[in-house]
Amino acid sequence: MKAIILAAGYATRLRPLTDSIAKPLLPVGGRPMIDWIWDKVREVDDVDAVHVVTNARYAGDFERWAEERDGAVVHDDGTSSNEDRLGAIGDIAFVLDRAAIDDDVLVIAGDNLFDFSLAEYVAFGRSNGVASCVAVHDVGDREVAKRMGVVALDADDRITALVEKPDDPPSTLISTATYLVHRAHVPLIGRYLGEGNPPDPPGRFFAWLHTREPVYGYRFGGEWLDIGNPEELLEADNRLRARLGLPQRAEYTLSLQS
Questions:
Q1: Angle, to 10 degrees, between the axis of helix 88-98 and the axis of helix 187-194?
Q2: In order of start, what are the domains of the chain with their CATH numbers?
Q3: From residue 51, how far is each of 104, 106, 206, 236 by CA, in Å?
């Protein structure tokens, strides 16, 4: 199994912080955001390589980060601005082609923090045979769900509907940016893009895929943090600082991270 961490976005809502630092490298709880994801990925014994896809602006920073992490491979997608980005699905396809991946693939957004075990998630996904999987979470708030991909599951937790950013969400069960793509479905990413479908956000591929192949939803509880704006960044920082016994902060800054 291969893992892909998506880190090629430009995080414009977090400027000026992200003018010089990639969002996944911003510290939360005193550590780079991507370190929390790295720890989770290393729980999965079958993962033998972790591919981090980024852009030309931040590639050097991620390469330095990867030097101390065995099995990490950094890919520069060649883009340099928010206007020419490949999009998350485009970046997945880029890594699949560049690394010649023909394997199950675990895909995680570099700003997606969670408590659940990725090892248990992978075991659930594989228990369903030739099927892909999406981690799903009940956010309990329809206003929040409007900004997400809303999911419907059948009695066996197979996805029956996935709608990105609905105006009137039928529920508060949403897809999160942690995906397991079965190796039999990996070639369909190229087909999806070849048909001219949107390259972003990643949930659009699974909205397309579930109408063609089995895709299951892995329900998880506990803490989940999706960091998209300064308020969410501060909240994530303080939640993780509380977990580590560090003092809370009224404002997010890059100084005094301990």
A1: 130
A2: 2-131+177-199+223-233 (3.90.550.10)
A3: 13, 10, 20, 24
> Using 50, 70 and 90 to split pLDDT, how confident is the model at 76?
very high
Gap between the Cα atoms of 19 and 22, Å rounded: 8
> Which pLDDT band, with edges at 50, 70 and 90, does 258 fall under?
very low
pLDDT at residue 64 tops 60: yes
Q: Average pLDDT over the chain, rounded to whole?
A: 93
CA-based nearest residue to 216, from 89, 146, 127: 127
pLDDT of residue 13: 87
Share of the chain above pLDDT 90, in %: 78
Q: Are 34 and 52 within 8 A, CB to CB?
A: yes
Burial (CB count <10 Å: 0-12, 13-18, 19+), residue 129: exposed
Preceding peptide of 201 cis, ω within 30°: yes
- For the record, the structure tokens of 173 come out as 């069960």
Looking at this protein, which amino acid is placed at residue 253?
T
The total number of residues written for the chain in this structure: 258
Please, what is the end-to-end C-alpha distance for the chain in angstroms?
35
Q: Which residues contact 230 (CB under 8 A, 6 or more apart)?
A: 13, 14, 252
Helix (H, G, I), strand (E, B) or coil at 12: helix
Tell me the backbone φ, ψ of residue 75, rounded to 5 degrees. -120, 125
CA pair distance 140, 77, nearest whole angstrom: 36
Q: Of 74, 82, 69, give the one whose Cα is nearest residue 18.
A: 82
